[in-house]
Structures are given as structure tokens and as C-alpha cells.
Write a structure and sequence with these properties.
84 residues; four-stranded antiparallel sheet; 3 helices; 4 strands
Length: 84
């Protein structure tokens, strides 16, 4: 599993008890963009994410494949627990 350390820090800092977060600008947080939010990462195994890329692509991990964006990740929003 990738991004465990960064994922746990992000989880404690930004994700509420309902498994959701505000829209977070990636450049303003301390994380490894790829490992923290990629497929099979710590966060991916626990939460659904809405990922917004520089080219305007939006990936909703409830329905879309992670690699759909293929450009720089700009924003992420945690949108729910996978276990609910």
C-alpha cells in the first residue's frame, strides 16, 4: 500500500467523522501528490475521492479509473467512506 504515512496525516488533518473533506488544493498541503492519492494508496483503500486535474478533467473514484486525469493533480475532495 502506498502513501500510508502521508495518508494518515491527511486523514487526521482534513477528513471529518463522516469520511468527507473540503476541496483541498494540493499545492497548499504537505503530501506526495502521487503516492498519497493514487490507486491502492492508503486513502484510496478507505475513501472515495473527487480529483481535479490541471487540464480540467474531474475523476470521481466511485465511478472512474484513477488514471483518467493524466495531468497534474490540482485539487482533491474526499467524498465518502468505502465501507459505508
Amino acid at each position: 500500500m502506498r502513501g500510508v504515512k502521508d495518508g494518515k496525516v491527511f486523514e487526521n488533518k482534513y477528513i471529518n467523522e463522516n469520511g468527507q473533506s473540503e476541496r483541498i488544493e494540493i499545492n497548499k498541503i504537505d503530501s506526495n501528490e502521487h503516492n498519497t492519492f493514487c490507486k491502492n494508496s492508503y486513502l484510496d483503500n478507505k475513501y472515495y475521492m473527487k480529483k481535479e486535474y490541471k487540464n480540467g478533467t474531474i475523476v470521481d473514484t466511485r465511478y472512474d479509473e484513477h488514471k483518467k486525469g493524466r495531468t497534474k493533480l490540482m485539487y482533491v475532495t474526499i467524498i465518502g467512506n468505502k465501507n459505508d
